[in-house]
Amino acid sequence: MKNPHHLLLIRFSALGDVAIMVPVIRCLYQTYPGLTITFLGRPFTKSLFREFENFNFHPVDFGEKHKGIKGLWRLFKELKNIPFSGIADLHSVLRTHLLTLLFKLTFFKVKKIDKGRREKRLLTRSSNKKFQPLTPTIYRYTDVFRKLGFPVELDAHEFSFKREFPKSILTHFEVKNKKWIGIAPFASFEGKMYPLDQMQQVIASLEKEFQIFLFGAGAIEKERLEVWERSYENVYSTAGRVSFEDQLDLMPHLDLMISMDSANGHLAANYGTPVLTLWGLTHPFCGFSPFNQPVTNALLLDRKKYPKIPTSVFGNKIPKGYEEAFRSLTPLTVIEKTLEIIK
């Protein structure tokens, strides 16, 4: 008998936010065998879901096909005849509100994420800050499925098997008998990015003993990473040389990923790889820590010296006097923590 359960998941935003969903989806499939999921998202996130069966990826094109109100109506018509058991709005923005309203009017069961916007404002405001840990985003996702009638327990999560080692790595890089460290030095906003000159000091020290794989995207990041690659014997840049899919397949084979509060930390954590996160003007209390990582794997700035941290959820607000705050996290501290974790 065909399983009747079919969920529509909607999340249009950044790669890291989508990556946080992966452990939840694993738990859904584990808890509800035969479940079918359709995911509505931007094309660049499709590779995150290669491990899943009974999974349909429905890409959105807000530049042309699905642009504006007419585009949302077209998107609704593409999906409205599918007998979804429930629709999970995991984004909760104006665009998803308009789209899910159409589903509600045709009697679909819809539940949306509570992003805790007010709590985050209290946590990130400059004065009278309410400094306390907020519900992690991954649990906000699970709450949506609970409301839809599909509760899951993250404690029962099982990591997927390691994917085959990407042959492109062997083509482009010399694989040595050393432990492997991935480093993703970039972030979407300056307030989340460790100063590059200090990161170079970290790389220069670690590459003497370990093989370093650098992760990034885009022309500017690619150029910077290639400079480091040319400067050090055991440093290799994957940017522009290895496909995104092969970068993902490399991550489970790393012994450690060093990441900002950004997507690569979540991607590596989803494979069970230890992740060392460097937090600048954001903070784990905002609810975006990589999955299943110990709190000791997060290096934070001194809030006695910089009490306005977190200054924002996204790292896009740098108060006066905080321009050099991230520099207070010394390369030596990062190096020593790396050695502690990896050895």
Descriptive report:
The chain has 343 residues and is α/β, with parallel strands linked by helices. It has helices at residues 15-19, 22-31, 68-79, 94-105, 117-124, 137-148, 167-172, 196-206, 219-231, 244-250, 263-269, 331-342, and strands spanning 6-10, 36-41, 55-59, 86-89, 110-112, 180-184, 211-214, 235-237, 256-260, 275-278, 298-299. The strands form two sheets. It has a six-stranded parallel sheet with strand order 8-7-6-9-10-11, sandwiched between helices. It has a five-stranded parallel sheet with strand order 3-2-1-4-5, sandwiched between helices. α4 links the parallel β4 and β5 (110-112). The radius of gyration is 21 Å and the shape is globular. The relative contact order is 0.12. The mean pLDDT is 95.
